[in-house]
Amino acid sequence: MVNKSSWFAPKEVPYICIENVTKRFGGFVAVDNVSLEIHRGELFSLLGPSGCGKTTLLRMLAGLETPSEGRILVDGQDTTNIPPYDRPVNMMFQSYALFPHMTVEKNVAFGLRQDNMPPHDIDARAKEMLELVQLMNFAKRKPAQLSGGQRQRVALARSLAKYPKLLLLDEPLAALDKKLREQTQFELMNIQEKTGVTFIVVTHDQEEAMTLSTRIAVMNDGVIRQVGTPSEVYEFPNTRYVADFVGSINLFEGDVTDSPDTEHVTIRSEEVAVEFKLDAFVELPIGAKVAVAIRPEKIAISKDKPEQEENICRGKVDEIAYQGSLSIYQVELPGGKLVRVTAPNLTRTAERPIDWDEEVWLCWGRHAGVVLSD
Amino acid sequence: MASSTPETGKAAGQSRRFGIPGRYLVISAPYVWLLLFFLAPFAIVFNISFSSAIIAQPPYTALFDWSTGLIPQIRGTLSGYGFLLSDELYAVAYLNSIKIALVSTMLCLMIGYPMAYGIARAPAARRNTLLMLVILPFWTSFLIRVYAWIGILKNNGVLNNALISLGLIDEPLPMMHNAFSVYVGIVYSYLPFMILPLYANLAKMDESLLEAAADLGCRPWKAFLFITLPLSFPGIIAGSMLVFIPAVGEFVIPALLGGPDTLMIGKVLWNEFFHNRDWPVASAVAIAMLVLLVAPIVIFQHYQAREDDN
């Protein structure tokens, strides 16, 4: 697949280079031969379930862990063996790690004070940072006297104060409630844009990663499964794992029955007794076992038979989850397989357009599905 | 989950209905204990300190004379306290006690802090063993452990004999019945009281704070100075008070290990009570010592309260 993202610039030297980095804890391999290239000004996300090695990778970038193998370059400089206190990299900790005995102001100025900056400049920079996160009125407070959202902003201001070349954020929004998290996502993006600092965010929340990031690396078991822009990862997942982890998806197991040219493929799924005719390139011989992955919103649901001949099947509504803006239908196909379909609630009505146990038609277009071989 | 909520609500209501006397009973138990065994003896000693010594049983005059009628006549005297000021022996003993207690506290802090820090940073599996080793000496009688130091420190004791047989010294070093032996005894005996509160404080410190400090450009020794040390201040205060307060009134250690130049107030108190049988002066010595110790106790309480707030 061709990478069309604006962050794909082969001629530009990547700002952060992670080269074949492995980290072992005893016999456990937390990060397994990971290589990544991140460009200046990116907001890059490491996405994965807990224990996938994303935080270990972040801690190696911060210098809090040393790689067992491989090296990490920041702006051309090999930082692999530089202790954390000499790195041009700062980190925002998941617990925020604010110093409880210091005021907000002192917390923000802490990093600057380590550099023997003139006191006047320290004050000016600390003020600037507090203005950036809108906490000027809280400068004299202790962290214990702040709300969760305010503490998060102090942590952000403190980690940005030293003009880091790279800012690492470990689950920056995990401790906030949903409403505040959504609001803070945009604040974080604004601040990143304003300061121009390269951000690497670790998160287990795929929605958060999609909203924030220029690019996402999906990690599992210490390995990077896919790197791409949010839409690439969502629309063109390269493995079953990525397809399943990012958003929800319907997977149909089947085999290739026909592949007349590089743009068309027919896949027969015995599981649901449906033939998928897709416009996709599959580099596989006829008879190869594959999976067709279709997102719930790419499938249309209707009571009347649609006018298309292919990519169509019947089913019975098993469950409906009304979510206001859209409804999620779980449809049982004749073979017993459950398929998830979402449809926007376009009309304002108290009655359900489609009800439980109703016979419905499902159909999808030739571009709706992705063919996955592993 | 939903069905269990009303039940637990009912149970909570019931326990509240019957709980009030039970709760007061539990809370009042330690207060009754303190009242009976601390406040009452204190009142008696306080009372005696204002009376005069006589040769009788008990050896002091009654403070209240009930013979005059319903309203008793108070026959208190400050002579006991006056006596403390008249003889400089008491002032010397007080100052000496405070000096020895202060130096011992500093020594305990200097030895105990690295130990507490080491235990707090040790792997979790080894931590309990290390703590156990700190507490282990309590399994032997305090008196026996102090006596053991005599065997170690005396002229033909373990230490001197070892040094002589190694050829490092010709004459035994004078390590007994002087300030050295008293400091050894006090520091040895009270070290766990310094280590335990410091450990409790250091163990709950969030290690990510040190990582954050390092991340912000702070070298390890500076991180210790700016983060660990200030945050362990309540532990330092708690440990210091636990060593300092009992060390001021320490009697057994200076009595067994000390000499003429290590006169401490506990020894003076003992002499007044049991040798001179001057209970009023002895009581006055005790009350004066208590007043001297109130200030550090108040500081201790203040910091403990502040730590609880955090």
Q: What is the total domain count of chain B?
A: 1
Proportion of residues in β-strands of chain B = under 5%
Query: Helical percent range of chain B?
Result: over 70%
What's the mean pLDDT score of chain A? 91
The CATH superfamily of chain B is MetI-like
Q: Please name the CATH architecture of the largest domain in chain A.
A: 3-Layer(aba) Sandwich
Which CATH-level-2 architecture of chain B? Orthogonal Bundle
Shape of chain B: globular
Query: How many extended strands of chain B?
Result: 2
Radius of gyration of chain A using CA atoms only: 25 Å
Strand fraction of chain A equals 25-35%
Overall structural class of chain B, as computed from helix and strand content, comes to: mainly alpha
State the order of secondary-structure elements of chain B, H for helix, E for strand.
Answer: HEEHHHHHHHHHHHH
Q: How would you characterize the largest beta sheet of chain B?
A: 2 strands, antiparallel
CATH fold topology of the largest domain in chain A: Rossmann fold
Mean pLDDT value of chain B: 87
Entry keywords:
heterodimer; A: 374 residues; alpha+beta; Rossmann fold; OB fold (Dihydrolipoamide Acetyltransferase, E2P); six-stranded mixed β-sheet; 8 helices; 20 strands; disordered N terminus; B: 310 residues; mainly alpha; MetI-like fold; two-stranded antiparallel sheet; 13 helices; 2 strands
List the helices and strands and how they pair.
The complex is a heterodimer of chains A (374) and B (310).
Chain A: E1 16-25, E2 28-38, E3 43-47, H1 54-62, E4 69-74, E5 77-78, E6 89-92, H2 104-113, H3 119-132, H4 148-160, E7 166-170, H5 178-195, E8 198-203, H6 206-212, E9 215-220, E10 223-228, H7 230-235, H8 240-245, E11 250-261, E12 264-269, E13 274-278, E14 289-294, E15 299-302, E16 312-322, E17 326-332, E18 338-344, E19 359-364, E20 369-372
Parallel strand pairs in A: 3-8, 3-9, 6-7, 7-8
Antiparallel strand pairs in A: 1-2, 1-4, 4-5, 9-10, 11-12, 11-14, 12-13, 14-20, 15-19, 16-17, 16-19, 17-18
Helix pairs in contact in A: 2-3, 2-4, 3-4
Chain B: H1 4-49, E1 64-65, E2 73-74, H2 79-86, H3 88-121, H4 124-135, H5 142-153, H6 158-165, H7 179-203, H8 207-215, H9 220-231, H10 233-248, H11 252-257, H12 265-275, H13 279-309
Antiparallel strand pairs in B: 1-2
Helix pairs in contact in B: 1-13, 2-13, 3-7, 3-10, 5-7, 7-10, 8-9, 10-13, 12-13
